[in-house]
From TrEMBL, chain A:
It comes from Mesorhizobium opportunistum. The chain crosses the membrane at residues 6-26. The keyword Transmembrane applies. Keywords: Membrane, Transmembrane, Transmembrane helix. This is Cbb3-type cytochrome oxidase assembly protein CcoS. It holds the Pfam family FixS. It comes from the Bacteria. The gene is ccoS. The keyword Protease does not apply.
């Protein structure tokens, strides 16, 4: 019983963290272009040149 | 450059002649101010489809002067460009050079989809609550007792509050709305069931009771919200795809002031008496009279005539027709609100009747279902009071009845089938506006087709190419490449790549044809009377299309015969419809001769030529009065009233804007097989919906007696509800795996080429 008093809040807190994360991602527009996000990973940033070794 | 450029270039080629790039004034008109001199323009770029496209477009646009940023959205195939200053940066031209065709969005439709965001948030909250409460409930079911059980119940009650308030709010509002207007919908029993279940569980928790239904009330919301969100996503996708097609109505026009100044005004501000400059390739914005210039007008979208019309000063022109060859100055004779287009919209709004009266299957079922369920629960309550006199027990059992009958499966039964069906149609290039459209399509018993632009492509095709001297054909093709007249486009298709002849000067004589000179001779391609000025057969030839000839120094070198090209698979589509028990009729604004020809080659027995827009409307209304459920397929402005008067309507992507908005279905591909395919999928969906409702009713028939007898525990309720929902979803998915219908086997490849077709369709 005593373990439950902290395990349940911990479980709920972690769950709420995940929910909060999702809602934040939704609000900041990360779900607006899912196809684009998948493709953009293939684009190299232009300015960064690999240093010669 | 990019993997998609070749296809994109082709699309641009095909379009080059009919769509002119939006002018910078038009872009400014359609842009939206973000304050501080910053403006945003949204462009639809249908051909973008990979990482290379994104990079190419963003880099090229970012390099232009005054452009602040450019961001591609691959999911919606749009580019948002932010720019400063008075000059509009030439981004449409820049995209054109890269091989991407872009068209403008109307400024009012780029608002973010608030409903979708709310639904997804509600799903997230309900999912979180359902998961956690279910976890606690499982512990209770597996034997937690006494203080532990009470603790778990209290925690569940707390978690359920935000879920009910936030996720449940959608149902409560909708139920309240329905009740206030004296109607019943599926949300009424949901709202009543969920809130009563919560209230009773809270009472039980306070009194240290055994059974709490927190899990049932929240997971019910979760399931139903998933169905509702999927439904919304599907409709939204269809909507954006249709909006992404290029706008065919003029947005504004160049007004010539008395003092010679030129102003670009939005269509709404044009008044009768103003002089308007219409460049070749632009659409006429309002009804008017030609003051200066000769040209050919493409009236196919406005009146259904397939042959371009020759116009000269003094003639009246209708709003919506496309100016093909020469610049015109017209004097507006009516404001936009009194023009032909507005007239069509008025007819359309007046015609909207049959469709508004249609009640969806789900609503019809719930109108019966909700009273029966609520009555059963009430009778159960009275019965238990009479039998035992125990208020608390009677209340608990009555609420258990409400929970078990809560239309989880029923709420999913209809939308889930329609989502799967819409997905299936989407893969075949057909957009569905909403679920009720499918229900209505499944019940049609007669199909009415427009001719020009629907059964035919509205584009002439050269039919006697094999009999023309190849050398002359090459000359003609090279000449034709200089014009945007539909006949020229048809001839230009026969050009030999790289075989360009050297002409010294090429001039287009609007209304007559093209003239070019080379070292030895003068070539003319155009109307017989003009081009063949030395030929003995002066004047118009015997051919139906006025006779188009190629002449060398006035002597006829080749004759060209055209016919309106039939849409791909038109014959197959008509046959399939007839096999499906739907007879076909053709209504057209074109001449009887042209109609008879098309009707004969397609095997259509019934057709009515030379109809005015109101004539088409009347025909549809007559059919409806006799008791027919009419399917209307059409594309022109003149079809719009008929489209909205019909029981259900389908338009091709090339249809006029108003027509596309009025139609329930829009198909993006050229093939007309889309029509029987949509009918077939809708009918299959209809039978699956009926099966699903039957499943839900059988489930209730089994579960309700158990609940009435008082044997339902929260565990049984959870299992029963989930099982019935899964059964219904599983049944709906059978539509996906149903054997492919004709062209469906090429879905994968076709889906890739959809982008091109989206572009081509403009």
């Amino acid at each position: 019983m005593t373990t439950l008093t902290y395990l349940i809040p911990v479980a709920l807190f972690l769950g709420a963290l995940g929910l909060g994360g999702f809602l934040w991602a939704l609000k900041s527009g990360q779900y607006e272009d899912l196809d684009g996000a998948a493709e953009r990973i293939l684009i190299d940033p232009e300015e960064k040149k690999r240093p010669l070794i | 450059m990019s993997c998609c450029a070749p296809g994109a270039e082709m699309a641009l080629d095909l379009n080059g002649a009919t769509s002119v790039l939006p002018s910078s004034q038009e872009i400014r008109l359609a842009s939206r101010s973000l304050g501080d001199d910053l403006r945003q323009t949204d462009l639809s770029v249908p051909t973008v489809h990979c990482a290379a496209c994104i990079q190419t477009i963003e880099a090229a646009l970012g390099k232009l002067d005054h452009v602040e940023s450019a961001r591609v959205n691959l999911s919606t195939k749009r580019v948002a460009v932010r720019w400063r200053g008075d000059e509009v940066p030439p981004f449409v031209a820049a995209l054109g050079r890269l091989g991407y065709e872009a068209h403008l969005f109307a400024p009012e439709i780029d608002d973010k989809d608030k409903t979708l965001a709310e639904l997804i948030r509600a799903v997230a909250v309900a999912g979180f609550a359902a998961g956690n409460i279910m976890l606690l409930s499982v512990s209770v079911w597996s034997g937690a007792e006494g203080a532990t059980r009470d603790l778990f119940h209290w925690v569940s009650a707390l978690i359920a509050i935000p879920a009910l308030a936030f996720a449940g709010g959608i149902f409560f509002r909708s139920a309240w709305n329905a009740l206030r207007h004296g109607r019943m919908n599926m949300d009424v029993p949901i709202a009543v069931g969920v809130s009563l279940a919560y209230a009773m569980s809270l009472y039980e928790t306070i009194n240290h009771g055994d059974h709490a239904y927190f899990d049932a009330s929240v997971s019910l919301l979760f399931f139903l919200l998933i169905g509702r969100t999927l439904d919304h996503v599907m409709r939204e996708r269809a909507r954006t795809a249709v909006k992404g097609l290029s706008q065919l109505a003029a947005r504004g026009a160049m007004v010539l002031r008395g003092d010679g100044a030129r102003d670009y005004l939005p269509v709404g501000e044009i008044e009768p008496g103003m002089r308007l400059l219409i460049a070749a390739g632009e659409r006429i914005p309002v009804d008017g009279k030609i003051i200066q210039g000769t040209s050919d007008l493409d009236c196919s979208l406005a009146s259904g005539e397939s042959t371009p019309k020759n116009v000269a000063p003094g003639e009246a022109v209708q709003a919506g027709v496309l100016n093909l060859t020469g610049p015109l100055t017209i004097e507006a004779t009516a404001a936009a609100k009194d023009s032909f287009l507005a007239e069509m919209v008025r007819l359309m709004e007046a015609a909207e009747g049959g469709r508004a009266q249609y009640r969806r299957i789900a609503d019809r079922v719930s109108a019966l279902y909700a009273p029966v369920v609520h009555l059963t629960a009430f009778v159960t309550f009275l019965g238990w009071i009479a039998a035992t006199g125990d208020w608390h027990r009677a209340m608990t059992i009555a609420i258990a009845v409400l929970i078990i009958t809560c239309p989880c499966a029923l709420g999913l039964a209809v939308p889930i089938v329609q989502v799967v069906a819409a997905r299936r149609l989407f893969e075949n290039g057909i957009m569905v506006k909403d679920g009720s459209a499918m229900e209505r399509l499944a019940s049609v018993d007669i199909a009415v087709f427009d001719k020009t632009g629907t059964l035919t492509l509205g584009q002439p095709r050269l039919v006697n190419a094999p009999s023309i001297d190849p050398a002359m054909l090459t000359v003609a093709a090279d000449l034709a490449a200089h014009s945007r007249h539909p006949f020229s486009k048809a001839i230009a298709g026969f050009a030999i790549p790289g075989g360009q002849l050297k002409f010294d000067a090429v001039t287009e004589h609007p209304g007559f044809g093209i003239e070019a000179t080379d070292a030895a001779s003068t070539w003319r391609l155009g109307r017989r009377g003009w081009a063949g000025w030395k030929a003995r057969t002066g004047g118009e030839g015997k051919h139906g299309y006025g006779g188009t000839v190629l002449t060398r120094n006035g002597m006829i070198a080749a004759c060209f015969v055209f016919e309106d090209a039939l849409r791909a698979d038109a014959r197959a589509a008509i046959d399939q419809l007839s096999d499906a028990g739907v007879p076909v009729e053709m209504l057209s604004g074109d001449t009887a001769v042209a109609c008879a020809e098309v009707a004969k080659s397609l095997g259509i027995d019934d057709f009515v030529p030379c109809l005015l827009p109101s004539g088409k409307l009347e025909r549809i209304e007559t059919l409806a009065k006799v008791g027919h459920k009419v399917l209307m397929v059409g594309d022109g402005l003149n079809d719009t009233p008929a489209l909205s008067a019909a029981h259900v309507s389908i338009a091709p992507a090339t249809a006029a804007d108003v027509g596309r908005n009025a139609a329930d279905f829009v198909f993006l591909r050229e093939s007309l097989v889309a029509v029987p395919l949509a009918l077939d999928v809708s009918r299959k969906a209809g039978s699956l919906i009926r099966q699903n409702i039957a499943i839900a009713i059988v489930y209730n028939a089994v579960a309700v007696p158990i609940a009435i007898l008082g044997h339902v525990t929260p565990l049984i309720a959870a299992i029963a509800m989930s099982a019935s929902s899964l059964l219904v979803i599983g049944n709906a998915l059978r539509l996906r795996t149903a054997e492919p219908i004709s062209q469906a086997k090429n879905v994968r490849r076709d889906r890739l080429s959809d982008f091109n077709e989206l572009a081509r369709s403009s």
